[in-house]
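Case study 2.
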Amino acid sequence: MTRSAKLTGVVLLSSLALLPGARVSSADEAAYHVAPLKGITLAVGPKRAVGYYTNAGNACHLTLMLADSYTEGDKAASEPVRINLTVREGTSAQVDALDGSLSFACASGASAMIIQPVQQVAYNAIAK
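Prediction:
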């Protein structure tokens, strides 16, 4: 990918972050309710996600871009990944990253999406 294409991607992701909507900065915070077509900015461990959802056919259609957080001069950042999910009303879906997860639940009538950071805890079975 060319340098200008990468820069364009960063600018697009940054502009979505400026849209009004929900902002989740750590896994310690509570759930957030987001209206359709409102921009969301999310932190999933060291990854950053921006996106929005639309409602149609009693379902929430989520579009999310997931990428490493950007720092000036960082040449090791990975390419962003686009995630499209359809979550039916009354159900939920989860997006997992290496160091965290996000749960997306679609409210009745797809009138809102509830976003909940999920803290992952490793299980270690100790042999007796």
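Residues 3-17 form the longest helix (15 residues).
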